[in-house]
Design goal:
The protein has about 425 residues and is an alpha/beta fold. The chain has 13 helices and 24 strands. It has a 4-stranded mixed beta sheet. A 4-stranded mixed beta sheet has the order 2-15-17-16. A 4-stranded mixed beta sheet has the order 4-5-3-14, covered by helices on one side. α4 (about 125-130) runs parallel beside α6 (about 165-175), α8 (about 235-245) packs parallel to α10 and α10 (about 315-325) runs parallel beside α11. It is globular and about 60 Å long. The N and C termini lie close together (about 5 Å).
């Protein structure tokens, strides 16, 4: 088990051009390449544990993967291969849920599994709607937990109204709809992250997105991808918070996706008092550009209750900003935090209390009264975002975080970037 110690930081001016590539888009690049009949060209693919697991699954399904370092070329098979082993999704709920939608309509037998944390995460939210349209899925706890067993076959068209705003559920259903018998529709309570719709439209899929998403079945294979994966705004957000809480600091985050469904946490940070500037440079599959975050003085408390699906991954880091803001911040409608890589509500509150911050746990969120962070020893709960959030807290008060191997799942060079603005030490 690895430990990470972070010391207090001096004011810094950081230019980040090596932020980890976007994890969500990288997963989708690998999976969506199987929808074409020609090679997809992917630059800046994330080389982290989870996304490499997805790449290995694509290979097990028969694709030829050529990795020259700068360029990843994925040539889909003429016919999908039934693997002779289980498909390991690592720690990625995105991979498992999207592969459920893809494989449910792919002839053959497949078993999806993952690490001990992923095997505890709820899969019924994907399994149940897929079963309703004819998918044959089963697993532990009546299909609610992995490992999941899939017997692929032709699926029925559907008009599905989701009770939760989840990009993973939506993406699984869209992948199923592309090979269903007729036109399908999907609605959700509020728009969740829309990478799937944007990327598939860029590949030629007939998908219309208004209040309801309408998906026409594929008549022929889609166009191959030719994409440079942008930097991950969720990963970059840790350093945005760093600049917002360390007086006199600034960070420029380069080549990041500016998709509105991915920058909501930055807007909240701006509302709290940080100075932000967005500069778009291109827009093909995704809007891409730079984000500059500058310390704007003492942060103010904030209430977060809307568009939660747009910032669910950034809430642990945002809680560090709330912990030093003036007043009491409140997060509600975020029960989804309890079923991520850890129970993030519990882990955030336990960590902040260890740091001397007055805070309280709610069923669907938490309250945090801003104060002064004190040095503490933090358990990451095996969750990469908890580990990195409290590493950023260490820039104001020395922190020691236990079990930081999980950072490798999404942001392999996090510690290297952090070491440019503070003294850090890792050991086992």
């Amino acid at each position: 088990m690895k430990f990470l110690e972070v010391k207090r930081a001096e004011p810094f001016d950081l230019r980040c051009d090596t932020i980890a590539s976007d994890k969500s888009i990288s997963h989708r690049c690998a999976i969506f390449s199987l929808l074409s009949d020609r090679p997809s060209r992917i630059r800046n693919y994330l080389r982290a544990e989870d996304t490499l697991c997805t790449l290995e699954i694509v290979s097990q399904l028969g694709a030829e993967v050529e990795d020259s370092g700068d360029l990843l070329t994925i040539t889909p098979p003429s016919e999908m291969k039934e693997p002779d082993n289980v498909l390991d999704c690592g720690n990625s709920g995105t991979a498992m849920r999207l592969f459920c939608g893809f494989l449910a309509a792919t002839d053959g037998h497949y078993v999806l599994t993952g690490d001990r944390y992923l095997r505890r995460r709820p899969m019924g939210r994907v399994v149940e709607p897929l079963r309703q349209i004819g998918a044959k899925l089963d697993g532990r706890s009546e299909g609610r937990l992995a490992p999941l067993c899939i017997r692929g076959e032709k699926l029925r068209a559907f008009n599905y109204e989701s009770t939760i705003a989840s990009a993973q559920v939506k993406s699984a259903m869209i992948l199923a709809a592309l090979r269903a018998e007729d036109v399908s529709t999907y609605t959700e309570p509020e728009l969740s992250r829309d990478h799937t719709e944007r990327m598939l439209r860029g590949m030629g899929a007939n998908i219309e997105s208004w209040d309801t998403i309408t998906i026409e079945p594929m008549i022929r294979p889609l166009e191959p991808l030719d994409i440079t994966v942008p930097a991950d705004p969720s990963s970059a957000f840790f350093f945005a918070v760093a600049a917002a809480i360390v007086p006199g600091s600034r960070v420029v985050i380069e080549n990041v996706t500016l998709n509105p469904t991915r920058t909501e946490a930055y807007r909240v940070l701006e509302k709290m008092g940080a100075d932000l500037r967005f500069e778009e440079r291109e827009n093909r599959y995704e809007p891409i550009g730079d984000i500059t975050v500058t310390y704007g003085g003492k942060l103010e408390a904030v209430e977060v209750s809307e568009r939660i699906s747009w910032l669910i991954d950034e809430l642990p880091a945002l809680s560090i900003a709330m912990a030093v803001a003036e007043g009491e911040s409140v997060v509600t409608n975020a029960a989804e935090l309890r079923v991520k890589e850890s129970d993030r509500i519990r882990c955030v509150i336990e960590g902040l209390k260890a740091c001397g911050i007055e805070c309280g746990e709610r069923e669907d969120g938490y309250t945090i009264r801003g104060g002064e962070l004190h040095s503490a020893r933090i358990d990451s709960c095996g969750d990469h975002r908890i580990a990195m959030s409290f590493a950023i807290a260490g820039l104001l008060a020395p922190m020691t975080i236990r079990d930081v191997d999980c950072i490798e799942t999404s942001f392999p060079n996090f510690t290297e970037i952090l070491s440019r603005i503070a003294k850090v030490r890792e050991w086992r």
